[in-house]
Design a protein that fits this description.
Helices cover 23% and strands 23% of the residues. It is built from five helices and nine strands; from the N terminus they run βββααβαβαββββα.
Length: 191
């Protein structure tokens, strides 16, 4: 058994295999977002292709639930661990992201909206999580995925979208708890 928790509850990233850039997102820079309506944790249908301004979408494999075990071998899948720390980093920096020009912020996974709603409420997220449970956006945009325990899950990446076009891709994202900081750095220094 690998010890992946340090004393404050954040995973010890040095004990978890880091993901490597396998080129799975290279085609996304400059791409138009496919017009697909996704259910959000607020019950709204969101079409990322139609949103005005700048949108940040962080994709993550899956959130766990307290008291429910992760799939077998989860911590050893490169990039799988860290969905809650990533979501919390975006929550904690939400105001700063807005000040840097982010008009819309979403998390995205292939989990169903009800499952996501529990996580959004438990983590007090000031933004919605989007469900691509039917894999419509994933297939249309050829988003990177992996499979485990009968689930098709998104690899961890973040998209900066401006008026429906991907302007920047963060991939791979590791460690996940620094994801929001990486986005803020890019926003502050982009030309």
């Amino acid at each position: 058994m690998v010890n992946v928790q340090n004393t404050i509850g954040t995973p010890d990233w040095s004990t978890i295999p880091a993901p490597h850039d396998d080129g799975a997102t290279r085609h996304l820079s400059g791409a138009r977002i496919a017009s697909v309506r996704l259910y959000s944790t607020t019950g709204e249908l969101i079409d990322l292709a139609t949103l005005a301004g700048r949108t940040i979408v962080y994709a993550y494999p899956r959130t766990g639930k307290p008291g429910v075990e992760n799939p077998e071998g989860w911590d050893m899948i490169p990039g799988a661990r860290g969905c809650t720390p990533q979501a919390c980093s975006f929550r904690d920096h939400f105001g700063e992201l807005r000040a840097l020009g982010v008009d819309h912020l979403f998390g995205l996974s292939t989990q169903d909206p009800e499952y996501q709603r529990e996580a959004a409420e438990r983590l007090h997220l000031p933004f919605s999580l989007l469900s691509d449970e039917q894999l419509k956006l994933t297939r249309a945009m050829q988003l990177p995925t992996f499979e485990t325990s009968g689930m098709t899950l998104l690899k961890r990446f973040t998209l900066a979208i401006y008026k429906g076009t991907v302007e920047h891709v963060f991939y791979p994202v590791f460690p996940p708890d620094r994801s929001a900081g990486d986005v803020m750095h890019w926003l502050a220094h982009r030309t």
